[in-house]
Structures are given as C-alpha cells and as structure tokens.
Amino acid sequence: MIDATSSVASSVLSEQTKGGQAMGKEAFLKLLVAQLQHQDPLEPQDNSEFVAQLAQFSSLEQSMGINDRLDLLATQTRGLANTEAIGLVGKQVTVRGSTMPYGGSGSTNIGFDLAGNSAETHVTIRDASGNVVRTLDVGARNAGKQSVSWDGLDDAGNRVPQGVYTIGVDAQTEAGDAVGVTQETQGLVEAVSFEQGYPVLQLDTGVEVPASDLIKVNEDPSGASGAAK
Description:
alpha+beta, eight-stranded antiparallel beta sheet
C-alpha cells in the first residue's frame, strides 16, 4: 500500500518539477485521493488528520486566489498612477528635492519641512559649481512646513545670475542634535518617463524626480496651487 502511494506521489512531484511549478491544487487532490485509495484498511487514516489535510488544501486554494487578485489590483493601480502622472505635463509642481531655479531678478521662496522644533536653522545656497553664494540664518523654527524668502543676492550684496541653485538646510536643537529636514523644490513638468513601470517627472530645471515625491500641483506658473492627491 505504501509503495503504491509513494509511486503516485513521485509521479505527481515529477510532473511539477518538469513544469518548474510549485504544487497546485490538482496535484494536491491527486495525492490526497491516492492516499485514501491505498491506505491500509486495517489501519485507516485518522479522521482528524484527514480533516487537517482538507483544511490545508482549502487554505492553499484561497491563498492562490488572493494572490492572483492582489497582482491584478497592483497592475490596475500602477496603470492609474501612470495615467495621472501624464496629466501633470505642463503644470507647475512642488516636489521633494534640493535644487531651485532662480530667474535672475526679485525674490524667491525656499521651502522645507522640519521634523521637530529647531533652536538654530541655517539655509545655504550654492551655485551650479558648488560654491556658496549665500548663507541665511533663519533662527529658531517650529516643526512643520517652512517658507524662507531669498532676495536673490549673494553674501556680498550682489544679484546672482539666472540659473539653478542647490539648497542645503541645517537645523539643530538647543542640545545640538540634528533635526530632520525634508526639502522642497518647484518646477514645470516638461515630460514624464517610466522607469521599471513607475512614472518619473522631468522638470524644466533639469531635475528628475519620481512621481511619488510630488507634494503640490500648481494649475499655472503664476502660483495658483492645489494639494497633490
């Protein structure tokens, strides 16, 4: 009896191995039926063990079905996100990032988010070559979103030229511990590319950021803003 059951099991497992697949429900049922057909009539299988095997099969079948539905949902969600990202082309957005365009005249705002209260906060502005053009001491700040105005002048009082600048924010507590900072930058979405199926926004400032870093959408470059979904 045992040899017959082993023979069926070996046959089923061999088929699964050739196909490069894990044991499915049909294979499981075939093994279960073979076990019942070839069990010793003098020592039949215990009912509790049989029920446990059926429960195992039921759980297996449910898991396979749930995984299939989750895969389908993930595919549909990714497709929806890609469609929404394409709709951002031509819109002014605020995203997580440390670069900032400056038009060469007037003032501009620098945005960042503090994870906690700071006793000292310094904003460092660097040009494309990495040279420090301006350092702003903006003092103590409460946790949350911040907006600092930069007049477009360097530390010597000269107007800086048009270009893309890199912003660095250093915030510390009274004890000298660093406060977490999330920096923000703005730009016009010129195109959307896809890397491994996920959308990446290409801004007019030359910055590329994943769509997941989107914070805010401005309907037009003049600044009429709307919260990002």
